[in-house]
Amino acid sequence: MTTIDTTTTTDDDVTASATPVLQARGLVKTFGRVVGLDGVDLELYRGEVLAIIGDNGAGKSTLIKCLTGAEIPDEGEILLDGERVHFKRPQDARAAGIETVYQTLAVAPSLDIASNLFLGREVRRKGFLGSVLRMTDRAGMRERARRELRDLGISTLQDVTVPVENLSGGQRQAVAVARAAAFGSKVVVLDEPTAALGVRESGQVLELVRTLRDNGVPVIIISHNMPHVFEIADRIHVQRLGRRAATITPRSHSMTEAVAIMTGAAEA
């Protein structure tokens, strides 16, 4: 079995001194006799893209669910900006500024782009119309939707009144990412964002991820697409058999070495 050096090096050694925006320490999660997580650590720093890779059953989904409130870890702790947090449901994580875009996207096809951006966060009109009649401020939501899309550099969605069911797969992904960016003040988590997308649409989604990073929003991306991981990630968390096998970077390791660590062909 080959041994690979997994010492991580980063630009300006930022991670050596900075406080992680999101951190997990010793997370344990079991499902009966099945161990989903076995003492997992994770650190996410401001203005970086952290990719999580691993074979099926490695614990990637369980880790993300624990970080975003969909699952409650049996042991360990989660810290946000250095403060310990306890997420009992996804709404708790969202309220703390952690937005997740799952592979299923969770968009409402019959609603327009603006309505999807504010899904579950609809803005009411001011005064009597909003407080008593509970009417939504469609004009205000559409204007903010245009601004959010413009700030993210999304030029393929010109008309925010278009129903999502009329959009391509890449455009729907852009809507879901824009929604996360609009409300994810701390962290944005993307689960397989380029799955089932063509080359051009995948490139557009990766460009969105870069924009989020450049705006200072840290991003966690879960992906099986190794070329995309090595193109976009600043650091790579390798998950194997419920544990963190290593944390590497595209500069310190090759794609082949990452796969070797992920599959156990190389020791971390």
Summarize the topology:
Blueprint (H helix, E strand, L loop, with lengths): L1 E2 L10 H4 L4 E10 L2 E11 L4 E6 L5 H8 L7 E6 L2 E3 L4 H6 L2 E4 L11 H5 L10 H4 L6 H14 L17 H15 L3 E5 L7 H16 L4 E4 L3 H7 L2 E6 L2 E6 L6 H9 L2 E2 L1
Parallel strand pairs: 1-12, 4-9, 4-10, 7-8, 8-9
Antiparallel strand pairs: 2-3, 2-5, 5-6, 10-11
Helix pairs in contact: 7-8
Organism: Isoptericola variabilis (strain 225)
EC number: 3.6.3.17
Keywords: ATP-binding, Hydrolase, Nucleotide-binding
Query: Residue share in helices?
Result: 25-40%
SSE order, as H and E? Answer: EHEEEHEEHEHHHHEHEHEEHE
> Strand tally, please?
12
* Order of strands, widest sheet: 7-8-9-4-10-11
Radius of gyration, in Å, reads 19 Å
Q: How confident is the prediction overall: mean pLDDT?
A: 87
Q: What's the story with the biggest beta sheet?
A: 6 strands, mixed
- Between the first and last Cα atoms, what is the distance in angstroms? 11 Å
Structural class: alpha/beta
Low-pLDDT ranges: 6-14
Proportion in β-strands: 15-25%
Label the overall shape: globular
Number of helices: 10
Domain ABC transporter: 22-266
Organism: Isoptericola variabilis (strain 225)
Protein name: Monosaccharide-transporting ATPase
Keywords: ATP-binding, Hydrolase, Nucleotide-binding
